[in-house]
User: Fold this.
Amino acid sequence: MKDIRLTRTAEAMIRYDSGCPKRIQHFLKVHEFASLIAEMEKVDEETSFIIEAAALVHDIGIKNAIEKYGSEAGPYQEELGPDECRRLLNEVGGYTDAEIERIAYLVGRHHTYTNVDGIDCRILIEADFLVNLYESEVRYKGILAAEKNIFETESGKWILHEQFGIAA
Assistant:
């Protein structure tokens, strides 16, 4: 059974990004891929919960980044996202301090592709890439480069190949 906190977090993020269907569509797609990869990789329940919650809020820094810097660039999202994430998750309620801190940490590094420290971080990055590659209409060479440089889970690689019709 799905954790009600995830539903409440999705609702809070839809309200947060009200009027911006592109961002709402994006985080919902990232959430679905993250959940699927976590299940395929047989991730434990608590880690899977962290992955799903982080996927829902991963781009929460965009609004403030645009306001402060006039850009939604990854480093700005990573700078401004964690505090906004903490605020929203505390408002939603039901999260432990440890859960909030791990989710905020993931938000603060989901555009940093080196020294990935945990399957939760790895899966969030891969799920975001699956969606970003499609939404940005990245061509074949870019997809192959992403596979080589970003993807490590067998499930993420499999979905990437199937999504874009690339032979293994």
